Amino acid sequence: MAAERRGKRTHTGRFLTVQTLAGFSQWIDVFLIFSIPSFLWQASPARIALLAALFGIPSLFLGPFIGAFLDRIDPRRILYLGIFARSVLTAAIAFAPNYWSFAALTLLKGLANLCYWPASSIITNRLVGSNERVRYFSSLSALDQVSKIVTPLIAGALTLLLNSQVIFLFSACMTMVAAALLPRLLSKTGLHWKAPTSGEKHSPVRLRDILNLPRNLIVTIALSVGISLSLAVYDPHLARFLSHSGFNPRTFSIVVSSTGVGAVTGALLVRFFFANATVASLVRSGIGIFTIAITSAAVISSFYMEYAGVGTLVVLWLLNGLGYELFMIGSGVNLQNLCPVSMLGRVSTSVRSLQMLVVVTGPSIGAWLISAHSWSMPFVVAAAFAWLLLGLSITGLKANFSRPFGKAA
Which residue windows are transmembrane per the record (predicted)? Predict the structure, then answer.
């Protein structure tokens, strides 16, 4: 039994390595996709926005259908397909001759991501035991946030040695290493996929399907979409707000870095001090800290901005990142615990589609609030919405919050 537990921990650690490499590669891709066209082809803001849309369109419109497909077949096949497609397409982007071929490959890359990440979510459910998920997700979050912070530094250093577009090959190498680790890992995990019976329905998730999910999962989905909307209302306008308030670009970089430091801090706290924390406490404390941070930002931006210095902004956005990360760890564990395995592909991709929808629409809401009212109004609206989410997290969640689906309370 002890040997079996050690074997499972080894497999979990190897899968954590795979997911870290895949995530690091994605951060590099995102950084390069939105920066290289500006320098290489002098792409206009409209063309950069088009790249962002192409990168996210597959998740927005095709997510639920890919999820339904994933629930019908062995997810390992799609995992392999997704990781190899990401590697090949990333290598192809490194040699794209012009903007439009670059844009077409970006669209295909978004589709490859849509295959890989939901499949990896299903594999995570089968590979990582429910008692290990808080520890696993906190470790993955810490490594992912560190990757996010160091990506600009690594990409900047590589530009001194390589042609900027060729840096995509560095990202492709990371996904190829991850792909090389997968066959040996998944062949020895003892995972057995059960084909769906003819009576099982595998259509994209409908409202009725969502309402039949466990109540705590429904509430957590609503909270995750809500907090994404709250962020989307003000976050894209942060740089312009700081500029309007008299701060320089360096301040914006420091504030963004503070968010990453807060997220890493949250993940490390969970990993080393609160690995046995309940999912409820992670979700509620995360939303609580986020609410305090954004409410403070709303008050300061409305009444005391002339007295606010860089230190104040650093503290607020560090708390912002800390709260958001605690919530995301709890939310990720809750999805794994409470979602029926036969619906995990559809539910996870549908949630991603909803989050992508609010990420796309939120900036427009923020822009309207600024033009119709003031620069501080996006923070005020986001804070009001955060208080509603905090109330929902307190009143809408039951005590047996982290009980894995199908197990007795």
Answer: 21-40, 46-66, 78-100, 216-234, 254-274, 286-304, 310-333, 354-371, 377-397
Q: Where are the domains of the chain?
A: 2-187, 207-395
* Beta-carbon count within 10 A of 352 CB: 23
Between CA 296 and CA 305 the distance in angstroms is 11
- Per-residue model confidence as pLDDT tens digits over 30-76: 888 877 887 788 877 677 778 878 888 888 788 777 777 777 777 88
The pLDDT of residue 198:
47
Token pair for 205: 């998730």
- Would you tell me how many other CB atoms lie within 10 Å of the CB of residue 122? 25
Give the tokens for residue 36: 């290289």
Q: CA 157 to CA 79: how far, in whole Å?
A: 31
- Calpha distance 248→258 (Å, rounded): 16
Beta carbons of 125 and 67 less than 8 angstroms apart = no
- State residue 189 phi and psi, 5-degree precision: -90, -10
173 pLDDT higher than 70: yes
Closest CA to 328 of 406, 407, 231, 188: 231
Find the helix or strand (DSSP H, E) in which 347 lies. helix 344-372
Please enumerate in sequence order all residues whose Cβ is within 8 A of that of 222, keeping only pairs 6 or more positions apart, or say none. 392
CATH-assigned architecture of domain 2-187: Up-down Bundle (1.20)
Q: Rounded distance, CA 86 to CA 251, Å? A: 34
d(CA 156, CA 6): 40
Please identify which residue in the block is written with the tokens 């650093």. Answer: 314
CA distance 213 to 217: 7
The 10s digit of each residue's pLDDT in 86-124 is: 999 999 998 999 999 999 999 999 899 888 888 888 888
Return the CATH fold of 207-395. Growth Hormone; Chain: A; (1.20.1250)
Return d(Cα 375, Cα 396) in angstroms, integer: 33
Q: Give Cα separations from 402 to 23, 49, 129 (angstroms).
A: 26, 39, 13
138: its two tokens: 């906190």
* CB count in 10 Å sphere of residue 348: 26
Q: Is it true that 2-187 and 207-395 share their CATH fold? A: yes
What are the b/e assignments for 29-53, b being 16+ CB within 10 Å? bebbbbbbbeeeeebeeebeebbee
Q: What are phi and psi of 266, to 5 degrees?
A: -60, -45
